[in-house]
Specification:
Length: 75
């Protein structure tokens, strides 16, 4: 099952996701993490087409390594 939590900026989405993750013993991924994974799998131009309004922060080495680790665990 996948739970999607949405809302405006600073409304508590992450806090709620972390709470539910602990209570239900399920993993959670932030949207930035998913965007990092997608950016590793497609070209920059395709990424910009898929996420035209994205304000994704510049990938740090830590975030890139996390995205690659997640990808490797599934493939």
């Amino acid at each position: 099952m996948i739970y999607l939590i949405s809302g405006s900026s600073r409304c508590g989405k992450t806090t709620l996701a972390q709470f539910l993750s602990k209570q239900l013993s399920i993993p959670w991924l932030a949207t930035d993490t998913l965007k990092s994974i997608v950016s590793e799998c497609i070209s920059s131009s395709d990424f910009n087409k898929m996420f035209p309004k994205s304000v994704m922060r510049r990938q740090t080495k830590k975030r890139r390594n996390m995205a690659l680790k997640i990808l490797k665990s599934y493939f």
